[in-house]
Amino acid sequence: MEGRAVVVTGATGILGEAVVRRYLAAGAHVAVPVRDAAKGAALQATVAALAGEGETARLLVLEAEPADRAAMDRVVEAVMTRWGRLDALANLAGGFARSDPWDLDALERLWAQNVRTAVVATAACLRPMRARAYGRIVSVGAFGANRGGKDGAAYSMAKTALVRWTESLAAALKDEGITANVVQPSIIDHPVNRTAMPTADPAKWVRPDELAAVIVFLTSKDASGVTGAAIPVVGRV
User: Fold this and answer.
1) Could you give the residue ranges of the DSSP H alpha helices within the chain?
2) What is the model's pLDDT at position 138?
3) Which residue numbers in the chain have pLDDT < 70?
4) Of 22, 101, 143, 197, which residue has the fewest beta carbons closer than 10 angstroms?
5) DSSP code at position 188
6) What is the C-alpha separation between 115 and 165, in angstroms, rounded?
């Protein structure tokens, strides 16, 4: 990833920080659209030793809503102005909530959080990718969403749609040097999940750095032969 430019949405969470760190350690330039400026500043401070500072810094934090096309177009323009290229997009933005199958508000909210963010960010980033005939797109699904449950309709619907959308995206771009894949983690080990499931064994869960390694590989040049795939990353479950 040396010298390559990557956009990472949803970068201020536990997984996001792990992904950003791994990109920076691999020599990439990373642009992070954030909804919350304070969280963006905190991320910037946390990874400063890897990213550097000033005009040569390899981390660019920009206030932008991933589900807003105009905002993401501005992010892409900033990346092109700063680094002159855009090689990869990691769609990490998303959300989870329990819901009944008839809860229309939850269906729309989870769709916006998990599907619209990926589609909008991808549409913006595809412009420079298609111009160069090169690009890597990875989105984060959920292994548990492969089967619906009584209180997970909205989440399952959104994450399943993300898989079908990724397959369609890959098929549409397969002759343009652009790949699209989705990773499907099981439970990710982070404090929220540990609090919600105090009797579970987090040693069996997927560590953020393990999932980050798969995401970064799929956005590398070496992953050119992988596209349209939904890849389980289930740890030791």
Assistant:
1) 14-25, 37-46, 48-51, 69-83, 104-111, 117-132, 153-173, 191-196, 208-218
2) 98
3) none
4) 197
5) B
6) 9
